[in-house]
Write a structure and sequence with these properties.
By secondary structure, this protein is of the alpha+beta class. It is 39% helix and 16% strand. Helix 5 packs across helix 8 and helix 6 packs across helix 7. InterPro entries: DNA_bind_recomb_sf, DNA_bind_recombinase_dom, Resolv_N, Resolvase-like_N_sf, SSR_resolvase.
Length: 498
């Protein structure tokens, strides 16, 4: 089931399945349940994965699998996916019984036709529901209501009732309790508002770069709303976000039906202009956007390389620091994005550094990716109203005061034979309860998969070498996304027995 309040609750399903088993004289010997999990993909469906693995590895000590109905395999957008899982079971001699369907799964033509129709209907249900939810969210955006996500520095979320009357502020991680209530953004503490105004003035009037602004704020001891130091990225987010002039903008990024994340063009954005109280003057905001647009003018490859050659001629050497310090030069990020790396750009102008910087380049990318992944993970955990603390020295996350988590990005290397390898080093000093290992693809810029490794099982190891396939003993901890981690950390109510 995907939510805690619906007719598909696992308790209701269990009752129907038990009644079906009693009528057929079946004895239930094992139960697989994925509670609170989306059925759009198998990612995060640990119990379904375990069932399939038990069947394939010959550990299934049963002759039949009882399923509530066809949609409980999942509401996959490809109807053949649920058919594939059923085929795996039948191929091993295990029959599938659908307890709430009006037909027997006996392989007859009517049964086959009905199953295919039901599988397609299950996927279509998700598509229709997604469209309805998106339409409702767009309507609320245009009316000026916030749709999820943190408020951001200098702003706060505030609850209003159905008559738009203020009710109460919402702290980070808190959610509304009434369906008729709505959330708006309001100016935050005065000191934060002043910092936001100062960032715009430093950028527009004093012509400081984002990096320089971050250094100034850090030097003064000012921290972000997350209690962290400022970076170029956090300053830039304040400079480009329209919420600071009161605009409510939605659908910049789409990730519908668990499909690939898509960055939408501005014409696809959903807008509610003037929805909130502005804390930045519109003219100041527009001036900042003009500066950013002029600086982001798209140079041709030849222009970028010519500018790099001129810098080399004037300085006699090249480095990322020299490029970023020159106000007339595009940033090193522009060169990395266009040519893949700074080293490649150096090669194209015939410059060979004294050192081989490829390893350092990969390290730099991994550090940036680790910081982004860390902040995203922390934010997701907070959104679920889970108590969380972060050690600023070690970046170890402690959830609910109980579970400590360490995030590690693992570089991908290729052997001479073309095989992929990863080497993981465990934090034996702090011994986190869970090591969240992020395996990178060969480009070391995109994520391949994740491993949730408990210290109780792997703590005896200082390092771990991993291949593309590692056997069920290790790959049982593998996941395509972080949904299993969030599900594990979520608090679950436990019923009381009389």
């Amino acid at each position: 089931m995907s939510t805690d309040h619906q007719r598909y609750s696992t308790e209701n399903q269990a009752e129907i399945i038990e009644a079906y088993a009693a009528r057929r004289n079946f004895e239930i010997v094992r139960t697989y349940a994925d509670e609170g999990r989306s059925g759009l993909s198998i990612a995060g469906r640990d119990s379904l994965k375990r069932l399939i693995d038990d069947v394939q590895q010959g550990r299934a000590d049963y002759e039949a699998i009882l399923v509530y109905d066809i949609s409980r395999w999942g509401r996959f957008q490809d109807a053949d996916e649920s058919a594939y899982y059923e085929f795996i079971c039948r191929e091993r001699g295990i029959n599938i019984h659908y307890c709430a369907e009006q037909f027997d799964n006996d392989g007859s033509l009517p049964s086959t036709v009905m199953k295919n129709i039901k599988r397609a209907m299950a996927g279509e249900y998700s598509r229709e529901l997604s469209a309805k939810v998106f339409t409702g969210q767009c309507r609320l955006i245009r009316l000026g209501y916030r749709q999820g996500g943190p408020a951001g520095y200098g702003l706060r979320r505030h609850l209003v009732n159905e008559r738009d009357e203020p009710k109460a502020p919402l702290a980070r991680g808190e959610h509304k309790s009434l369906q008729t209530d709505r959330v708006i953004l309001v100016p935050g503490p005065e000191d934060e508002v002043r910092i936001v105004e100062r960032i715009y003035r430093m950028f527009v009037l004093q012509r400081h770069s984002e990096r320089e602004i971050a250094e100034i704020l850090n030097h003064e001891g000012v921290t972000t709303d997350l209690g962290r130091t400022w970076t170029r990225a956090t300053v830039r987010q304040i400079l480009i976000n329209e919420k600071y002039i009161g605009n409510n903008v939605y659908n910049r990024i789409s990730n519908k039906l668990k499909r690939k994340r898509v960055v939408n063009e501005p014409e696809m954005w959903v807008r509610g202009d003037g929805a909130f109280a502005a804390i930045i003057d519109r003219e100041l905001f527009d001036a900042a956007q003009a500066i950013l647009a002029a600086r982001a003018r798209r140079f041709t490859d030849d222009e970028l390389l010519a500018m790099l050659s001129n810098l080399l001629a004037s300085r006699g050497e090249l480095s990322g620091l020299l490029i970023d310090e020159d106000d007339e030069m595009p940033s090193t990020a522009a060169y990395r994005h266009r040519f893949g790396s700074l080293v490649r750009a150096y090669q194209l102008i015939g410059y060979t550094p004294d050192r081989d910087y490829r390893y350092l380049e990969t390290n730099r990318v991994l550090r940036l990716l680790q910081r982004d992944a860390f902040e995203h993970t922390v934010e997701r955990i907070r959104e679920m109203a889970i108590g969380i603390e972060v050690d600023p020295q070690t970046d170890i996350i402690v959830a609910n005061g109980e579970i400590s988590i360490s995030l590690v990005m693992i570089r991908c290397t290729e052997t001479a034979a073309g095989s992929l390898r990863w080497k993981l080093r465990f934090d034996s000093r702090h011994r986190p309860d869970i090591t969240l290992a992020v395996r990178m693809n060969p480009d070391n810029r995109t994520v391949r998969d994740y491993y949730l490794l408990p210290w109780l099982d792997v703590g005896r190891l200082a390092t771990m070498r991993m291949g593309e396939e590692n056997g069920i003993a290790l790959d049982a901890y593998r996941t395509d996304d972080l949904d299993p981690l969030y599900h594990m950390l979520r608090r679950h109510p436990i019923g009381r027995a009389a």
